[in-house]
Specification:
The complex is a heterodimer of chains A (178) and B (445). Chain A has four helices and five strands. With 178 residues, chain A is α+β, with helices and mostly antiparallel strands. Chain A has two domains: 64 residues, no CATH class; 103 residues, OmpA-like domain (60s Ribosomal Protein L30, Chain: A). In chain A, β3, α3 and β4 form a beta-alpha-beta unit. The two termini of chain A are 38 Å apart. Chain B has 445 residues and is α+β, with helices and mostly antiparallel strands. In chain B, 54% of the residues are buried. Classes of the chains: A alpha+beta (178), B alpha+beta (445). At the A-B interface, α1, β1, α3 and β4 of A face β7 and β8 of B.
């Protein structure tokens, strides 16, 4: 059941317009199809473990990110249930706008995030709204739309793990990544 | 009881016993019978946690299968756990009785236990390494044979065979097809890695289909059960993939600028509905898997997401905040005027339509909690199925009689099944770490 899958093609596509010089090696894909699955099957020959037949495992490796403007915050926070870029975030937005205008070959990913309350897909859509608010602010500051991509992680990547209001506030954010 | 079992075996198997004698297998046979008495009560493997009490549960005796002590799977306990999870049956201990499908039941023994049905069977390793699985079901009240079951499977398929027996018993005793011989997919997060798993409908026998350092969400079974669509963040953004389980071959089918998410298969398996933000906002599109430009289905501003097809493919249910709060709407599958479906509450998401088209399950915020509800589409009547506070992503069993959903159980993300009246819930077995994003697949062929 050996299965070769060239994830590297995808990364090449991602980097096609990025001249930041970040070097990514080919991404190896590990075949885990023969791996036994859990405590209930330990010590039993994999052929008789009762694990699913006809499922070939695939492993994906980590992607790298580039470097943006030095000494500038890359996170913009939002109020609960809000998609409005706060006034206090204005200097951060302006710094990134200047960097992107001075480096027209660079691209920024605007990654929207939410707190943990509610469904994953609906939070993905809410995080998208936040990312698009930052995209619009950068665009209004003169950055070309072709340098910007607004995406969302929804609630999948909280910055703080706790459930206090302070933790939740840290998670309602847009990260500006290069 | 050992003596009783052996005598019973003799009474009905004289020709077979002679066959065994002729080929010199009697010592092996004796050892095998002793083993099945000593080892058979192996129920500890299963984690069915029934948290409610049903009104009418048919008491059924499921005797350990003859030969299962020497087989890789304990079939009777798998069948019993399946039937109990359905909420419609109560397993009764068989004691130390040794039975198989050829036995003549001692009716008085089982009637004393108030059993209404009795299942017994055998599992025998064949010369080619496969297993011959046989079972018989009796109506204890009437003292009648209700039919027999036979299956020949590989060792790896013994659990599947047990689920097929459970489906067969379910059909015999309820008149409705069972759905135990189906699979669920789910995602685990453990040690900083995300894995997509395929498991039996009871959560056991899991096999990893994908492992990634970045989140995986929204796995969705193709109608054929051969492929999954899901959202992976491995490219540092949400991209929709279609993944062939048998080969591990996967390809991005929606990797447009912005976010790509919430895949749902059309009934013919030839296209997906999904949420794309490439035009700004979150809008529903139809994506032909044969290629071609995605076709936009919604035009309202704001959020349109979580598409779910009706079983006949004519209607698309989805979530929209067009009215100011997230609610479930429906529209023609090709796009068109939308009609609101949920009216109570200010946060209703994650619609799932039952395969028989009768029910819509969804998550509703009640107070501060997110709970699975079902609405009977014809009457509009809503039933809350849980009293937990962080339920997510319900989906229906292929026979429309049960749901699987994610929730928090003792602080861990866990998967639960529930009957449609909410009375019987069971926590599914699974891998370590947080378990989430379940989706119940079609019946296996």
């Amino acid at each position: 059941m050996t299965k070769k899958f060239l994830a590297s093609l995808l990364f090449t596509a991602l980097l096609a317009g990025c001249a930041s010089g970040v070097k990514l090696d080919d991404v190896p894909v590990e075949d885990k199809s023969a791996t036994s699955s859990g405590a209930t099957t330990q010590g039993i020959d994999s052929n008789t473990s009762g694990a699913q037949t006809g499922v070939a495992g695939v492993t994906v490796d980590k992607s790298a990110s580039g470097i943006g403007p030095a000494g500038v915050a890359h996170v913009v926070y939002f109020d609960y249930d809000s998609f409005v870029v706060r006034a206090e975030a204005r200097p951060v937005i302006e710094s990134h706008a200047r960097f992107l205008q001075a480096n027209k070959q660079r691209k920024a990913n605007l990654e929207g995030h939410t707190d943990e309350r509610g469904g994953r897909e609906y939070n993905l859509a809410l995080g998208q709204k936040r990312a698009e608010a930052v995209r619009q602010a950068l665009s209004l500051s003169g950055v070309s739309e072709s340098q910007l991509e607004a995406v969302s992680y929804g609630k999948e990547k909280p910055a703080a793990q706790g459930t206090s209001e302070a933790d939740l506030a840290k998670n309602r954010r847009v990260e500006i990544r290069y | 009881m050992y003596d009783h079992g052996f005598r019973d075996f003799n009474d009905h198997h004289t020709p077979m016993k002679l066959d065994f004698l002729r080929i010199g297998l009697l010592p092996w046979l004796l050892k095998w019978l002793v083993l099945s008495v000593v080892v058979s009560p192996a129920w500890a493997q299963f984690r069915v946690e029934v948290t409610g009490v049903g009104m009418t549960q048919v008491p059924v005796v499921m005797a350990p299968f003859k030969g299962e002590a020497a087989a890789p799977q304990k079939l009777a306990s798998i069948v019993q756990a399946d039937l109990e999870r359905s909420g419609q049956f109560k397993g009764l201990a068989a004691g130390t009785a040794v039975m198989d499908e050829m036995s003549r039941p001692d009716w008085s023994t089982w009637r004393q236990l108030s059993a209404e049905a009795l299942l017994a069977g055998s599992v025998t390793r064949l010369a080619d390494g496969r297993f011959d699985v046989r079972a018989r079901l009796w109506d204890v009240v009437k003292g009648q044979d209700k039919g027999d079951f036979r299956d020949t499977v590989s060792a790896a398929e013994l659990r599947l065979s047990a689920h097929r027996i459970a489906d067969w018993v379910y059909l015999q005793l309820t008149g409705t097809p069972g759905a135990f011989a189906s699979r669920i997919s789910y995602v685990t997060k453990a040690g900083g890695r995300y894995s997509l798993w395929i498991a039996d409908s009871d959560g056991e026998g899991a096999q990893s289909a994908l492992s990634s350092p970045e989140p995986i969400i929204s796995p969705s079974w193709s109608p054929s059960g051969t492929h999954l669509a899901y959202v992976s963040f491995e490219l540092r953004k949400p991209v929709v993939y279609v993944h062939e389980l048998a080969t591990g071959q996967r390809r991005p089918v929606a990797n447009f600028k912005g976010s790509n998410s919430a895949p749902a298969w059309s009934a013919d398996g030839k296209s997906l509905a999904a949420t794309l933000s490439r035009d700004g906002g979150s809008q529903l599109f139809r994506i032909d898997l044969g290629g071609g430009e995605p076709r936009r289905l919604t035009t309202s501003g704001g959020i349109n997401t979580e598409p779910a097809f009706s079983p006949d493919g004519s209607t698309l249910f989805f979530v929209s905040d067009r009215g100011g709060s997230p609610q479930i709407y429906r529209m023609p599958a090709q796009g068109g005027p939308a009609e609101r479906v949920t009216f109570s509450g200010t946060y209703n998401i994650s619609p799932a339509v039952s395969p028989d088209g009768r029910w819509l399950a969804y998550v509703s915020r009640v107070g501060g909690g997110f709970r699975v509800h079902v609405i009977e589409l014809a009457s509009g009547q809503v039933t809350a199925l849980t009293d937990t506070s962080a339920d997510e992503r319900p989906s229906f069993a292929p026979n429309s009689r049960m749901l699987v959903y994610a929730t928090l159980f003792q602080g861990r993300e866990s998967l639960m099944t529930t009957t449609l009246d909410g009375r019987i819930k069971a926590r599914l077995a699974g891998q370590g770490g947080d378990i989430r994003e379940p989706h119940w697949g079609p019946l296996r062929k």
